[in-house]
Amino acid sequence: MDRRTVLELGGAAAVGTLLAPGIQLLASPRPPDKTEAASGRRWAMLIDANKCSSGCTACLSACREENHVPLFGDAGRDIHWIRKVELRDREHRKPALSLPVLCNHCEHPPCVHVCPTEASFIRKDGLVLIDEHRCIGCRYCMIACPYKARSLVYFSTQMPIGGNPRIPVRAKGVVEKCTFCVHRIDDGLQPACVEACGHTGGGAMLFGDLNDPKTEISQRVKELRTETIREDLGLKPHVHYQGL
After folding, report:
1. Both 62 and 22 in a single domain?
2. In this structure, is residue 38 part of a structural domain?
């Protein structure tokens, strides 16, 4: 094939004309609106403890299904991107609270500071993510995280039937954690846990851009009394709680 023919075929591909009888390149459907990872955004979550019941596991189930998070049956080595904990008043003046705990996507994440390979990093919009190709499984980040939000993949896994192809098959020996469902955020959607909580749970979870004064989460965090876990560490976590 000479150079002229190559250029002609390239032009044909660009405009979607026929390359051969019965064969035509078609334009792909328009993707949904994307959310740019801009430095001006700061994704955050607000959880109302008064609306979260102890028996509800909607957020846990949705997270596992959406992100293919497996349960191996080994309590010490199972992977948990989000878990429920029970908070009790030492003086027993208040009833126990059931709280979802997940990666807090801190503004000053210790997991990023201790990572020797820069596998843990902060995206422009503040999301704390892990590059699985850089992770060597040293687990320094797991030790540094005060929220116990990271897990090491001890066992090999496979893509489940009907699984989301945008979620890669997890690699053995790599650390992983909650991503706030970054693939959904980039498509303009809510994290799976938040969506499930609103549909089948108690509607306790709210998610949005904390830097946008027009968003509901920004207004509620500003107007209501909210708290974060271990504020004393100065990490500026971006999972806020109401009603503690």
Report:
1. no
2. no
